[in-house]
Each structure stands twice: as structure tokens, then as C-alpha cells.
């Protein structure tokens, strides 16, 4: 997996390679990524030098079928070599003209582009993770010059706190690679003009083109159609499209969207982003589980009492009420971010770390899930609240939201996976806006110790002694395990303490933003963290019936004050399954 690379990013100095040159890799790497990289080169062979335990170097050539020599590698071919972990070098035959990557941010004038995409692209550039030849082009209807785009982008760029050297120089160099093209999203002519502009920058090199659709969903198809027909790579490079959520609002609309995409793109070209999959601790979930002996044996109904997936924000829908009212918190957070984490958490060990193997396991989890019952769902909506002199608005105070809106800004739900590993274990989800804190975490509560010798020390409430593993995705990333411990002294007093892996204390390096990882993956053709269409179908099949029922029955949400801990009914839901929400406990570190 990416986290095992010890190189700081996964780029190689590919564009500086001369024909048949070997590229040496100073550190351990997975050969599949070497091969992936070679999609931008013509493959000749891959030589691998593996360091043995005694330090000796064993050399081998990864067999490449003769009919594949000189061809671009497809991900399918890569699976042959994917599990080889090596140190060494690889040889490629370089393209005659070299390659370039052109990244077009469609909707460049928008919120997400400014907030996340351009800063992530700069971070990749700053870290040396972008190829030598690349162009970034903003595309939107707004009229802007290149200079105006650069000015807009420059306001959002920051340098890594641990690497401030040459920052302004790097920013200037980066901004010089950014251009702007104004056009309509449904105009083949405007996209053809974009194509012409990109070609000028690509300067005859093999062009690989990445389109990031950072636009509202109602114009996805227009943009995909025009990008694919008028501006895709025409000279042997790849064309990929990153699509932002929402991918529809139920099974039917999602399937229709996929069908429309597939008129213009193959599944391999579609990168459906769920930025929670790019978060460091979500990426680490599989490492934690599959590369530590102590967790995997406990990872089942036998030892785990319940799992909690919690998302909270301490602000409302500010500025996004128009979008939000049509979706609500279940579609905005649960059906995608929390469900994706659940699938990664609960999946069986994949055959390998290849994208398809991982996604195959995730989809099995999703398909094993029990339909969600309406009585297992709690809905809430925030109302206004005054604290001191400050009046915090209600959801319906947003001018873009109808006054009588029933759209939930909070939801809690109990989900179940009906398979052998998880039979009967409640997976509780809770997501809300305008709550008392901002947090995303996974909480795993273990069963009570059978015949606990120390039970008298806990009084009547054995839950006080529950071991709990907390994976705090954000903020202040941490993994900690609550254990029972003897308080030092002559008596026998027990307390609960944390074995704590606190990232800020352990690692001095700043944690990359999820969008950096995902953009880099899309450039490299790594699909592991993107949603495959069957995963999406399964996710919608799970949520669509209950969403329909909520809407048909016009369920009134429980109103909770802005800045509170959310609806009381969430506690009743948990109690029904003999669960206490872990984030509301009284521990030192919650
Ligand atoms: N913002 C966020 O935090 C997040 C956003 N997303 C998703 O990312 C995508 C982009 O989000 P965001 O940047 O907030 O979106 P914006 O509403 O800011 O729209 C992006 C750009 O699209 C164009 N646009 C907006 N509305 C229309 C319209 N009705 N018809 C045609 N063009 C329009 C505008 O550019 P111009 O007028 O110049 O053409 C605008 O600058 C959306 O799909 C959103 O759901 C996902 C997660 C988080
Ligand atoms: O996808 C979305 O995510 C954000 C929260 O993302 P984070 O990385 O800041 O935690 C959320 O605010 C937004 O409503 C939702 O659409």
C-alpha cells in the first residue's frame, strides 16, 4: 500500500529518463507502482533487485510477456507483479517525445477548487510529486485572465509548516504553470478551444489528461461529454475524469448518471472521489489491521461488541444550504464517507493490495448489509441558539433553505452486516452539523472480559471497563486504546488509561491533505481509493429504501440547538442495542 513506501511520494524522475535508462529507487517500493508509472512510458522490462534478510541483493527480471513489450501497461497486467516488495531499479524505454500531464480543473472559479484542489496541486508540486512536464488549466464560465486565476489561486496556497524553504519561489514557479480558459460546460467548441490551448502547452509530447469535475452535479454529463469528445488525449496518452460527489441522490439517479458517463468514458477512466478515503487515518486502517498481529484476531463478533462511526461539525451548512437541502446529512456524509470507512473496516483480508482486490472485498461487505429499518434511524435538524451575545442561526434561517424544510442535518443509524464475521454486531453511525465539536472518528468497543477477576473494582457498571480502540481521523489525528490499569500505590485501585499514538507527538511531518493523495493517485492511475460503480450501486441499494420512506412519510426531525450534542433520541437508539456512544464518555481523552 502507499503507506509502506518510504519515498516521500510515488513519483519517479520519469521525464528525465533517457531511452532504456534504469531508474534506481533508493527505498523499498512495490513493483506495481513502478509498472503503473510505466503507463506513461513504453515498457521494455522490469528489473528488480531485492534485498534479502542477510543484506545480499538478489536480482531478477519480472517477466513481461513478449506481446506486451513496448506497450503501455494496463492495470490488469500489473496484478501479476503487485505483491513484490523490492528495492532496486526498473528499466523502461522512453517515449520518443516524452510525456506530459495536463490537469484541467473544471469549475475553477468555485469553492472546492479554491479551497482544496489548487492547494493540493501546489502541495504535490512543492513535494516534487508532479511530473516534470505538467500544465494546470482552470476552466469555468467566469471571465478571467491567466493573471487573475493566478492571483485567485495564490491567495489559497500555503507552504508545509515543516518545509518553508524557497516557498515563494516555488509558488511563483507553480503559478507560471497555471492557465485559465473560459467556456461553457456544454460547448464542444469551447472544449475544442481548451484542447488547442492544452496542445500548445504540451508541445508535442504524449498528452495525459486529467479533468477534475468540480462543478454541480446537474452539469456533470455536459462537461464529461464535451471533455471526452473535444478535449481528450488524442495521441496515445490517457484521459481520466475525477468526479466529485454527489453521485446521484438514490439508486435510480446514480445508475442513470453512471449510464450517461459510460456513453463517453470507460469505468477505468472514471475516478469517483470520496475524500475521506484519502485521509491519513482511513488509509492507515488497513495497515493497522493487517500488519499488526494483535488486532486482526480480535476483529470479529467474537471480541467486538459494537463499532461506532462518528462525524461531527461545529458549524452549519453556511453557504451550502442550497445544495444541502436537496441531499441532507444521510446522503452528504453517511451513504459515502462513513459507509466507505465501514466497508474498509469490516472487509475480509483482500487477496492483495491491488485496487480491484480491495474493492472486491469492500463490495462484499456492502452487499452483506441488512436493509436499514426506519426505526433504526434518528433524524435531527439544528435550531437557533443564543450564547452570550451571539445568536447562532437555525438551519432554516439560511435564505436558500425553505422555511418548512424537514431535511436532516443530523442522523444516527444502526447498521448490521449479516455475515459470519459480523453477525449481530451493531455498527452505529452518527453524523451531524452545528454540533458542539468537529470530529471524525471510529470507535471500537470490545466485549467485557469474561469472569473478570477485577469486576468488583468497577462497581456495578462493567461498561466502565470496556476496552475501546479509538481511531481519530480528525482533528489531531490519533489512535488510542483504552485499557484498565492499576493506579500505582499500595492499594488495588484501577483506572482506565490510554495507550496513545498521538500523531503530532510521534511524527514531525505535516499530514498531507486527502486531496493531495487522491490527486496523485489519479495521476498515477491508482484506483484503490476511488469508488467503483458496483460499490456505488451497493451503497445506494442500502440507503435508498430508508431515504424514500423518510421522504414519503415526511418524518419530522428532532430539533437540537446549534452547538449542542445533538438529538437525545440518538442515545435511545444506541441503548436499544446496549451501546453507549463513546464520544460522550467522561474519559480524559475522548
Ligand atoms: N465545496 C465543498 O466543500 C465540497 C464540494 N463538493 C462537490 O464538489 C463540486 C463543486 O463544489 P463547489 O466548488 O462547492 O461548487 P460551486 O457551487 O462553487 O460551483 C463550482 C463552479 O461551477 C459553476 N457553477 C455553479 N453553479 C452552476 C450552475 N447552476 N450552472 C453552471 N455552472 C455552475 C461556477 O463557475 P462559473 O460560474 O464560473 O462557471 C462555480 O464557480 C460539487 O459537485 C460539490 O457537490 C464535494 C465535497 C465538498
Ligand atoms: O463531503 C463533504 O465533506 C465535508 C467535510 O469534509 P472534511 O474533510 O472537512 O471533514 C462536509 O463539510 C460537507 O458537507 C460534505 O459535503
Q: How widely separated are the two ends? A: 30 Å
Radius of gyration: 25 Å
Rough outline:
globular
Number of helices: 16
What is the strand content? 15-25%
Low-confidence stretches: 1-8, 11-45, 47-52, 63-97
> Sheet with the most strands?
9 strands, mixed
* Number of distinct beta strands: 24
Which small molecules are bound? NADPH dihydro-nicotinamide-adenine-dinucleotide phosphate, ligand LXAUTJHC
Give a verbal description of the structure:
The longest helix is centred in the C-terminal third of the chain and has 20 residues, at 533-552. The chain has 590 residues and is α/β, with parallel strands linked by helices. The protein has helices spanning 31-37, 75-78, 111-126, 146-154, 167-176, 188-202, 220-231, 251-264, 280-290, 321-325, 328-346, 355-367, 503-506, 514-524, 533-552, 569-576; strands spanning 22-24, 29-30, 42-51, 57-62, 85-86, 89-93, 99-106, 134-140, 178-182, 206-213, 239-243, 270-273, 304-312, 377-383, 385-387, 390-392, 410-415, 427-432, 439-446, 468-474, 478-486, 494-502, 530-531, 558-561. It is globular, with a radius of gyration of 25 Å. The protein contains 16 helices and 24 strands. It is 30% helix and 23% strand. The strands form five sheets. It has a nine-stranded mixed sheet, sandwiched between helices. Helix 3 packs across helix 14 (514-524) and helix 6 (188-202) crosses helix 7 (220-231). Ligand LXAUTJHC is lined by residues 275, 313, 332, 440.
Amino acid at each position: 500500500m502507499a503507506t509502506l513506501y518510504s519515498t516521500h511520494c510515488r513519483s519517479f524522475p520519469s521525464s528525465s529518463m533517457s531511452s532504456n535508462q534504469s531508474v534506481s529507487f533508493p527505498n523499498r517500493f512495490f513493483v506495481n507502482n513502478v509498472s503503473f508509472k510505466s503507463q506513461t512510458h513504453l515498457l521494455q522490462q522490469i528489473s528488480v533487485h531485492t534485498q534479502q534478510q542477510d543484506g545480499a541483493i538478489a536480482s531478477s527480471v519480472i517477466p513481461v510477456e513478449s506481446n506486451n513489450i513496448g506497450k503501455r501497461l494496463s492495470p490488469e497486467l500489473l496484478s501479476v507483479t503487485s505483491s513484490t516488495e523490492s528495492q532496486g531499479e526498473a528499466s523502461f524505454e522512453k517515449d520518443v517525445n516524452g510525456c506530459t500531464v495536463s490537469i484541467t480543473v473544471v469549475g475553477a472559479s468555485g469553492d472546492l477548487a479554491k479551497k482544496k484542489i489548487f492547494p493540493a496541486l501546489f502541495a504535490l508540486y512543492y513535494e516534487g510529486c508532479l511530473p516534470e512536464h505538467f500544465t494546470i488549466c482552470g476552466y469555468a464560465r467566469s471571465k478571467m485572465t491567466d493573471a487573475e486565476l493566478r492571483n485567485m489561486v495564490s491567495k489559497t496556497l500555503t507552504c508545509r509548516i515543516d518545509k518553508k524553504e524557497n516557498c515563494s519561489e516555488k509558488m511563483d514557479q507553480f503559478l507560471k504553470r497555471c492557465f485559465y480558459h473560459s467556456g461553457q460546460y456544454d460547448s464542444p467548441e469551447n472544449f475544442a478551444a481548451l484542447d488547442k490551448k492544452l496542445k500548445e502547452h504540451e508541445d508535442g509530447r504524449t498528452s495525459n489528461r486529467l479533468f477534475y469535475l468540480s462543478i454541480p452535479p446537474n452539469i456533470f454529463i455536459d462537461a464529461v461529454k464535451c471533455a471526452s469528445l473535444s478535449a481528450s488525449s488524442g495521441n496515445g496518452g490517457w484521459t481520466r475524469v475525477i468526479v466529485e460527489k454527489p453521485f446521484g441522490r438514490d439508486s435510480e439517479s446514480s445508475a442513470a448518471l453512471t449510464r450517461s458517463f459510460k456513453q463517453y468514458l470507460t469505468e477505468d477512466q472514471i475516478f469517483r472521489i470520496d475524500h475521506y478515503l484519502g485521509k491519513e487515518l482511513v488509509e492507515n486502517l488497513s495497515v493497522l489491521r493487517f500488519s499488526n498481529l494483535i488486532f486482526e484476531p480480535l476483529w470479529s463478533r467474537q471480541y467486538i461488541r459494537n463499532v461506532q462511526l462518528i462525524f461531527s461539525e461545529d458549524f452549519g451548512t453556511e453557504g451550502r444550504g442550497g445544495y444541502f437541502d436537496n441531499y441532507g446529512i444521510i446522503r452528504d456524509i453517511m451513504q459515502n464517507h462513513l459507509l466507505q470507512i465501514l466497508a474498509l473496516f469490516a472487509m475480509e483480508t483482500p487477496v492483495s493490495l491491488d485496487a480491484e482486490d480491495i474493492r472486491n472485498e469492500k463490495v462484499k461487505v456492502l452487499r452483506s448489509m441488512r436493509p436499514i429499518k426506519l426505526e433504526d434511524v434518528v433524524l435531527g435538524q439544528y435550531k437557533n441558539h443564543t450564547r452570550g451575545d451571539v445568536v447562532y442561526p437555525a438551519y432554516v434561517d439560511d435564505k436558500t433553505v425553505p422555511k418548512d424544510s424537514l431535511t436532516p442535518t443530523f442522523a444516527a443509524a444502526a447498521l448490521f452486516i449479516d455475515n459470519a464475521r459480523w453477525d449481530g454486531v451493531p455498527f452505529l453511525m452518527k453524523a451531524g452539523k452545528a454540533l458542539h465539536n468537529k470530529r471524525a472518528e471510529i470507535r471500537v468497543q470490545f466485549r467485557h472480559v469474561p469472569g473478570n477477576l477485577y469486576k468488583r473494582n468497577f462497581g456495578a457498571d462493567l461498561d466502565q471497563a470496556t476496552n475501546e480502540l479509538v481511531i481519530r481521523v480528525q482533528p489531531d489525528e490519533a489512535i488510542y486504546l483504552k485499557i484498565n490499569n492499576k493506579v500505582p500505590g499500595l492499594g488495588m485501585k484501577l483506572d482506565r488509561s490510554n495507550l496513545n499514538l498521538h500523531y503530532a507527538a510521534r511524527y514531525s511531518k505535516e499530514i498531507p491533505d486527502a486531496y493531495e493523495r487522491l490527486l496523485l493517485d489519479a495521476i498515477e492511475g491508482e484506483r484503490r481509493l476511488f469508488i467503483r460503480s458496483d460499490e456505488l450501486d451497493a451503497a445506494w441499494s442500502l440507503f435508498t429504501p430508508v431515504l424514500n420512506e423518510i421522504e414519503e412519510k415526511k418524518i419530522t426531525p428532532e430539533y437540537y440547538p446549534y452547538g449542542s450534542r445533538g438529538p437525545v433520541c440518538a442515545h435511545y437508539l444506541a441503548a436499544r442495542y446496549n451501546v453507549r456512544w463513546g464520544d460522550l464518555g467522561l474519559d480524559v481523552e475522548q
